[in-house]
Specification:
Helices cover 64% and strands 0% of the residues. It contains seven helices and no strands.
Length: 177
């Protein structure tokens, strides 16, 4: 049995005399070349669509992050976790809820309770300080520093030291004495 192409037509064999006319042979050749051209155009269009959708996904994530006051550079991490999933505001919000703490981003409920005057760097510093565990020894040191301040005259240095100690105590969630 003779070999056939994707259309079910016999493939020309140079060693085998065929009964096809030159006209029929040219028609088959033109069909094959049209199919090859259509396949390459299809592949190029699919590549463009894929790139467009990826760009649209990046833009959507960046817009949601910007609206939430989060650095847009976090988008690459959100997209890496998204994979082929649809990315929308709910997806980004859930991602931030699960992973935001890694980047010093607090959930919306906690962020609303904060001082609105804090910028992103201050929030990251506070989150980092909260994430560090405080040993009883360091708490004792903070309390000792606070007691040492009680007998000193109240200068600017004293006020700064007092604020530093109180801030550290607050981060450690230790009641001041």
């Amino acid at each position: 049995m003779a070999d056939v192409d994707e259309f079910g037509l016999p493939v020309e064999d140079d060693d085998n005399d065929t009964t096809e006319t030159a006209e029929a042979s040219e028609g088959i050749k033109s069909l094959r070349s049209a199919l090859k051209k259509a396949r390459s155009e299809n592949a190029a269009l699919q590549k463009q669509v894929t790139e467009f959708l990826a760009g649209q996904k990046r833009t959507a994530v960046a817009d949601v992050l910007k609206a939430k006051g989060v650095n847009e550079k976090v988008a690459k991490f959100v997209l890496a976790d998204a994979g082929d999933n649809e990315v929308n505001e709910d997806f980004v919000a859930n991602w931030l809820k699960e992973n935001g703490e890694i980047f010093g981003i607090q959930p919306a409920a906690e962020a609303e309770q904060e001082d609105p005057g804090l910028d992103q760097a201050d929030r990251i510093a506070e989150a980092s300080a909260r994430a560090q565990s405080t040993s009883p020894q360091s708490v004792g040191t903070l309390l000792q520093r606070l007691q040492d301040l009680e007998g000193k005259p109240k200068t600017q240095e004293w006020v700064k030291e007092y604020e530093d100690v109180m801030s550290a105590i607050e981060r450690a969630n230790v009641p001041a004495q």
